[in-house]
Amino acid sequence: MAAGEAAGRGVVRVTLRHEGRLNAMSRAMWRQLRTVFQDIQRSDGVRCVLIEGAGEAFCAGGDISEYPAFRFDPAQLRDFHESDVWGGLAAMLDCDVPIVARIAGACMGAGVEIASCCDIRIAAAGARFGAPIAKLGFPMAPREAALVAGAVGDVTARQMLLEAATFSAAEMAQRGFLSRVVDTEQLDAQALGTALRIAALAPGAARLNKQTLRAIRKNVPLAPDQQAQAASDLIANNALADPYAYADSAEHREGINAFLAKRAPVF
User: Fold this and answer.
1) Which UniProt keywords apply (predicted)?
2) In the list 30, 76, 124, 259, which could disulfide-bond 184, CB 3.0-4.6 Å?
3) Which long-range contacts (CB under 8 A, 24 or more apart) does 218-226 make?
4) Taking the domains of the chain in order of start, what are their residue ranges?
5) pTM
């Protein structure tokens, strides 16, 4: 992951980079994402963040090649989602600097989660969206599911998670997830132009607007902040079963092992 690259006056470019894996998020990348956005939050000179994926994809999901090392143990699985993944996403959600997402190619799973933390999402016409982890034999973690449902809408989230459905950029724009869809050759100019326009405006006002919108969302059904906290409360109060108890299940192992073996899973 490349971070802190200046892209113009007051604009910082954050690039998701994992060569050969369509920028799939590794554990190290999640931790770096947290550090990057915590640093941005503390910086007085950053007026807008432009987040993108290197090459032809935004982010194809998680780095599944790492999964056998920790996913089959409930404690390690919980630490991965609650510390690594949510740590990165929470740092984005808590960031008062406006975030513009430049989305090209695959935006799947972790990519949708990261995009859900952004204020403005601009996608190339050929971008694809989804979270087909049902094919891998595991669910989306509660706070991550709450975040995605709040951003894409309940109907779309259910299709992504239950049907393993994927959607075009045009469909996601119609469903309210994307700010706009542009031709691929226009994506760079449109995304950077948006970030520069934001950076040219009053930075203090932008930070206050984000703080206000964050506070308002807490009182709106399906808001990411509210739903994420509600999910945590359900688990803490034992009203929801341990969401990581499936770690050593046969279908969890089968889904991941089948993917790594490049064969169809048998559930």
Assistant:
1) Lyase
2) 124
3) 222/149, 222/150, 222/153, 222/154, 223/150, 224/93, 224/116, 224/117, 224/146, 224/147, 224/150, 224/151, 225/93, 226/150
4) 2-236
5) 0.87
